[in-house]
Design goal:
Layout lengths: L1 E3 L14 H9 L2 H4 L9 H8 L8 E5 L1 E4 L7 E10 L10 E10 L2 E8 L3 H9 L28 E5 L2 E5 L6 E3 L6 E4 L18 E6 L5 E6 L5 E7 L10 E2 L3 E6 L2 E3 L1 H5 L9 E3 L5 E7 L7 E5 L3 E10 L4 E9 L3 H8 L13 E7 L4 E8 L3 E7 L2 E6 L6 E6 L4 E4 L6 E2 L4 E3 L2 E8 L4 E8 L7 E6 L9 E6 L1
Parallel strand pairs: 1-23
Antiparallel strand pairs: 2-6, 3-32, 4-5, 4-33, 5-6, 7-8, 8-9, 9-10, 11-12, 12-13, 14-15, 15-18, 16-17, 18-19, 20-21, 21-22, 22-23, 24-25, 25-26, 26-27, 28-30, 29-30, 30-31, 31-32
């Protein structure tokens, strides 16, 4: 590879180790939680810390107070999902998920937010303690062995066929009523998927990791009925968060992160602790032709890790261009884990990179288009909208792919935006305003980012930082 430069939240007692709660209490920024500035923490950093509190209340759709004017053509619902109940956990990824929604119609906005009431969460609330293995903690009793982590339904959502699916990394979707956000339950989509279904579907396709003696990737098409279209074996258990489809291919970057599955199933340490960075293996590039999914093109390049792709397309029968956000190693997992609990620090740096995959020579050439550390992308033809993590709290900006320039969105002091969503030229982001201790849905003119939001639809409470979301037109 060549590189050019209405229910209150319920706290659960820790169930895996007595020192978990003590550790969390020692490191959690309590001053940020009660509104008092922690020593040495600026108001902007305090805004970031204050996002990691439990969702204060749940409710169905209610009118939201609107500042500015909602564009008439914006008709539909934006859904967001993320960890919203931090309970006894010691890793951000373990927080039990909640789904929020803002519905637009004829210049009005209604908002709702509810916890995803999975069977695991209901059992733990009834017991008032953690019962199940999670990403970074062990379970109790027999739940410690021969199990994957419980499904917190906290990564993303997918509107489909009159349902809303709350998605996670290593489990099945959780079906939700899109009109009330009430949980219906786990689904296999009529037996078409399983045992897992990724939280990152793209353009009518998705994948799932198949855990077991023969670790592999299941490939799914979702245009019409969901169906499995192929399976790709992997040399070792690993972690794959995202993929990117083109018109004729699936593209995976498989990092040298090895899941020590035997240790995990034997109850020796947590899922998180059994993820080992082994750079000597390099990152495997896997390109799967849709026409012949049993004949993938595979080759290995120097090691890197990435959470998210931006876009990909074919330039010829033998070349694919991939825009993605690579990190040097897997340290970003530790940063995500400790972000709610440790004093704030900037995450490991990523880059905006463009790879050219030569399918004939099995070569990957990389050009770095921006050195600005960023993630959570949304693609819009000539532009990409991202969050900058060069400093905390993150900032929302537009990256112009022709001029390679950045244009930031002014949101005011002590605010924290979340992942942008592009809808017909408008950009939507759920923003936390620490001065009001409340969140609003910002509507931004994609052609004029420097003007800031043209409208804000306000909740009367804050919503913890969501990871991903989806738009459904009316």
């Amino acid at each position: 590879m060549n590189t050019r430069s209405a229910a209150p939240s319920t706290s659960l007692r820790a169930g895996s180790a007595a020192d978990v709660a003590a550790s969390r209490a020692a490191t959690y920024p309590r001053g940020a939680e009660d509104g008092a500035a922690s020593a040495g923490v600026t108001p902007a950093l305090q805004a970031w810390q204050r996002l990691f509190r439990d969702l204060p209340r749940e409710h169905g759709f209610v009118p939201l107070r609107v500042e500015g004017r909602i564009p008439d053509e914006l008709r539909g619902t934006i859904y967001r999902c993320g960890p919203s109940h931090f309970g006894p956990y010691v890793h951000w990824f373990d927080g039990d998920g909640a789904v929020s929604a803002v519905r637009f119609e004829r210049g009005r906005a209604e908002g709702a937010v509810r916890t995803v009431e999975t069977k695991w969460l209901r059992a733990e609330r009834a017991a008032n303690r953690q019962l199940y293995r999670s990403y970074a903690q062990l379970g109790r009793g027999l739940r410690r062995w021969f199990t994957l982590p419980k499904n917190p339904a906290n990564i993303s959502v997918l509107p489909r066929n009159g349902e809303l699916l709350a998605l996670w990394e290593a489990g099945l979707p959780i079906a939700i009523d899109p009109q009330t956000l009430e949980t219906r339950g786990e689904t296999t989509l009529g037996g078409a998927i399983g045992p897992t279904f990724s939280a990152h579907p793209h353009r009518g396709f998705n994948f799932g990791l198949h855990y077991g003696p023969k670790f592999s990737i299941d490939l799914y098409a979702m245009n019409g009925d969901v169906r499995r279209i192929g399976n790709v074996p992997l040399p070792r258990p690993t972690l794959i968060h995202d993929f990117i489809p083109t018109q004729r291919h699936f593209v995976f970057f498989c990092p040298p992160v090895r899941l020590r599955l035997g240790r995990l199933l034997a109850g020796i340490d947590t899922f998180d602790a059994n993820l080992a960075w082994e750079p000597q293996h390099g990152t495997e590039v896997i390109v799967v032709p849709l026409a012949t999914p049993n004949k993938p093109i595979r080759f290995t390049v120097p090691p890197f890790f990435q959470w998210h792709f931006v876009n990909a397309w074919e330039t010829s029968d033998t070349e694919i261009v991939v825009d993605y956000l690579p990190y040097r190693d897997f340290e970003t997992n530790n940063w995500f884990g400790r972000a709610p609990y440790d004093p704030p620090r900037t995450p490991p740096a990523s880059r905006y990179a463009r790879a050219r995959l030569d399918l004939t020579s099995r070569r990957m050439d990389v050009e770095v288009l921006s050195d600005l550390s960023c993630d959570f992308p949304a693609f819009d033809q000539k532009h990409v909208w991202l969050l900058s993590f060069d400093a905390l709290p993150p900032k929302l900006f537009r990256f112009d792919l022709e001029t390679l320039t950045h244009r930031f969105v002014p949101l005011g002091p002590d605010t924290v935006p979340s992942e942008p969503t592009v809808v017909n030229g408008w950009v939507l982001s759920l923003v936390f305003d620490a001065t009001r201790d409340a969140s609003y849905l910002a509507i931004i003119d994609g052609a004029r980012p420097e003007d800031g939001p043209v409208a804000k639809a306000w909740f009367d409470h804050f919503i913890p930082f969501p990871f991903h979301g989806a738009w459904e037109s009316q």
